[in-house]
Backbone:
């Protein structure tokens, strides 16, 4: 299959699927090799970079998705008011920063850091798919374990958690909130 045809098929899949898709999933879907899929993804990246498109192919932890270019964020953000990051309360942003830097983490551990309850913030962040319950501790009460999601990475323009700004433990919430 020619690279133009393959990249068009992959572009369609990435456009139609709301979540990042791995190379393996794409190669299985289009019945071709991983290397051919990677070549088509690179072709798409170049194609979007070479034209005045508002889209880009984004790599999130080794999976790919179509997303808007960061320079268009303000316009997209103004248009898209539902589930907007900027509409999160200060408490929710603080909880999100704690989860981002201390994950995996339980509600009790978050509350110990903050000094106040965080039930509502956790629920809102889970509903927005910025964090997820990824398991339970095997101790009394079996508390949920929280971690950030790929949507968190996408919405904050990160490829991986390693791209989070480095900070010292005393000021991590404040610095993270300033970064966003």
Residues:
């Amino acid at each position: 299959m020619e690279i133009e045809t393959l990249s068009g098929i992959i572009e369609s899949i990435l456009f139609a699927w709301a979540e990042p898709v791995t190379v393996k999933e794409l190669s299985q879907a289009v019945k071709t090799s991983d290397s051919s899929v990677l070549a088509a993804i690179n072709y798409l990246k170049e194609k979007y970079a070479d034209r005045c498109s508002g889209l880009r192919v984004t790599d999130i932890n080794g999976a790919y998705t179509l997303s808007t270019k960061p320079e268009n964020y303000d316009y997209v953000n103004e248009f898209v008011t539902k589930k907007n990051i900027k509409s999160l309360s200060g408490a929710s942003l603080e909880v999100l920063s704690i989860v981002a830097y201390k994950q995996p983490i339980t509600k009790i551990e978050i509350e110990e850091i903050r000094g106040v309850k965080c039930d509502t913030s956790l629920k809102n962040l889970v509903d927005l798919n910025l964090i997820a319950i990824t398991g339970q501790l095997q101790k009394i009460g079996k508390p949920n374990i929280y971690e950030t999601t790929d949507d968190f990475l996408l919405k904050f323009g990160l490829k991986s958690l390693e791209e989070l700004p480095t900070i010292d433990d005393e000021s991590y919430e404040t610095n993270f909130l300033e970064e966003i």
Notes: The chain has a mean pLDDT of 87. The beta strands are 21-22, 55-60, 63-68, 105-106, 131-136, 144-148.
